[in-house]
Each structure stands twice: as structure tokens, then as C-alpha cells.
Amino acid sequence: MADTAPSPTLSPDESLALTIANAIKSANLVSDQHISRIQTGLAKGNITARDWALIAELALTAATQEDAS
Predict the structure, then answer these.
(1) Helix axes 49-68, 32-44, angle to 10 degrees
(2) In angstroms, how far is CA 15 from the centroid of its own chain?
(3) What's the pTM value of the predicted model, to 2 decimals?
């Protein structure tokens, strides 16, 4: 896995968002395609409960489809 240490050029919000996104990714809670959306939303402070619900739904759907294969 790549170095997850936040870059010194990141703002505190971006640094925290990166840390959270990396933790979510390493726990395999959502697909890689959603990680950047989560990270951006967290850094900007505009990710909503509805966004989290959609991301979780999509992750569950993908997991269910993988299990069915």
C-alpha cells in the first residue's frame, strides 16, 4: 500500500479526509471508485448523510453481486 502519511502541503481538512479515506479503503468498506468521492466530500465538508447512504447501498449491492458469482 502506498505511503498514507499526509502531505505537508495539504490543509488540515484535506489531511484528515485522506486519513479517513485510507482507513475506509484499507478496511474494504467501499469500492475504490468511491474513495475519491468520499475524500473530496470530507475535505470540502459537503458530504451528506444521503451521500453516505448511497455509497453504502452501492457497496452492499456490489458485495451481494460478488457473492452471487
Answers:
(1) 170
(2) 13
(3) 0.73
Rg of the chain on CA atoms, in Å: 13
- Residue bearing cell 447501498: 57
Residue labelled with grid coordinates 498514507: 4
Successive 10-residue mean pLDDT values, the chain, 69 residues: 65 94 91 88 94 88 81
What CA–CA distance (Å, rounded) separates 44 from 17? 9
Dihedral pair phi/psi, residue 49, rounded to 5°:
-60, -35
Residue 63, SS3 per DSSP: helix
- Distance CA(64)–CA(58), nearest Å, equals 10
